[in-house]
Structures are given as C-alpha cells and as structure tokens.
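Quarterly update from the structural biology core.
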Amino acid sequence: MQPIPTNAREALAIYTDPNSEDWERDYAAKMIGELEEGRDALLATARDDNADGMLQQRAAECLSYAWRDQGVLMSAEISGFTTTALQEILFQRGEGPPFRA
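Predicted structure, tokenized:
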C-alpha cells in the first residue's frame, strides 16, 4: 500500500509505480495533471487497451481538466484513445453523453 501523496510529484511516483493498485493510481491521477510528465502518463493510460476501464476514464477526466486549464481542451489530440477514454473526453467537451460502463 502506497502512502497518501501530498503533492503532484509524489502522486506521479505512485501513478507510474507498477506495484500501485488501481485505486491508488485513480486517486493519484487527480493530482498529476499540472505536471507535463503527469499529462504524458495520463495520455498513455487513456490510450492503453490493457489498462482498467475505470482508470482509462479517470485518466481522460483528469486530462480534460488539465487541458481546460491550458485552454486546449477542444483542440487537444485524442486519436488513439480507448473507447472508454474517448467517451469521457467527448463528454467533457460537451460533444457526447457521460461515461456509462
């Protein structure tokens, strides 16, 4: 079990640690969007068919918040996203329904 992260760097370490459980990565995802390396990790998850669907959805959600803050949500490249992640991004853009499992 990982310690609770107190900053984005600690959260990134947990998110990228292969020994972290999905629920730990889910929590950490909420903190890493401000970091370029964090956005890269979230992008990788949103495009990873082998990642848990819940984690794909969370990665896309957190990316949408980071991209909104940067002013690029509507133009960000989303090619290669899994179906789950794509549905979440489209919802965050106002272009589709909310994610349904």
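Residues 11 and 28 are 5 Å apart (CA to CA).
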